[in-house]
Amino acid sequence: MVDDGKKEERKAAAGSDAEPSADLDGADLFFDLPDENVSDTASSDDSGTPLVSDEPISEEDELLAAVEIQLTPEELAEIERRGRMKWYVIHANTGHENKVKRNIDMAVKTNSMEDFFGEILVATQEITEMKNGKRSTVKRKFFPSYILVEMIMNKDTQHFINTIPGVTRFIGGTALKPEPITRDEVDRILGRISAPEAGREVLDIPYEVGDSVQVIDGPFSEWVGVINEINHDKGKLKVMISIFGSETPVELDFLQVKPV
Question: What backbone phi and psi angles, to 5 degrees, belong to 87?
Fold first, then answer.
């Protein structure tokens, strides 16, 4: 048994600043323990499998995660169907492109072939032309004698198209194995159909450089000259007119002249 004297010596050796353990609160009992790495403990389960990715999430991934697009089974089926289609070009009798297109559309519906065909297009473009001094807008085929067909190619669909009245053959590849046109070609053609040259008016001018024309409007009316330059963008002609014995360039609108 330890006497009171030895107890006092032990207290003095512990230091005068030491506080009795009974005065420590619950939090101070763990003052010497290292801080836990919260992210390490939260990033894996009991088996060691990571629960939280340490890789930063990009802004694009966050946006995609935030947008939820709900597609119906019918929409998914349509996307899958159109994804299997490619664009082919067929040759038709000249001047009968629209009639052949209607024949294809009707045959597809009559024979319940809708699952194998998409769009059928005759490439046309609105053209502003000049006739008898008047400007008019007409639709003109810029891909004459050809029709674009979006389809799933196999022996049955190939034979089906070849039997349509007015169709002569597929363009590209061989007679036994037609080849589709490239995506770039499709975009270029379809872009020209929907928005020709970013909405610019396309003029079809019945004149060429060197043609003789007579001015029918303006201060040079009744004068005859020769076309030296054509500006299709502005719809202007530069006509060389003999004025006082000297050839002088005069800028005129297409409507101001007529062919001689």
Answer: -95, 130
What does the alpha-carbon distance between residue 144 and residue 161 come to, in Å, rounded to a whole number?
19
Please give the structure tokens belonging to residue 3: 């006497």
What Cα–Cα distance (Å) separates residue 101 from each residue in 55, 80, 93, 257?
Answer: 55, 25, 11, 39
**Measured distance CA(165)–CA(122) in Å, rounded:** 16
**In the chain, how many domains are there?**
2
The 10 Å Cβ neighbour count of residue 124 is 17
Any residues with CB less than 8 A from the CB of 160 and at least 6 apart, and which? 107, 111, 113
User: What's the average model confidence in pLDDT over 44-60?
Assistant: 55
Of 5-9, 27-31, 77-81, which one has max mean pLDDT? 77-81
Do 160 and 104 belong together in one domain? yes
Q: What is the CATH number of the domain that holds 183?
A: 3.30.70.940
Round to whole Å and give the CA distance between 157 and 117. Answer: 9
**pLDDT of 222:** 86
Residues 6+ apart with CB under 8 A from 236: 230, 251, 252, 253, 254
- Residue of 137 and 260 predicted with greater confidence: 260
Answer for the pair 80, 112: CB distance below 8 angstroms, yes or no. no
| pLDDT for 105 beyond 90 | yes
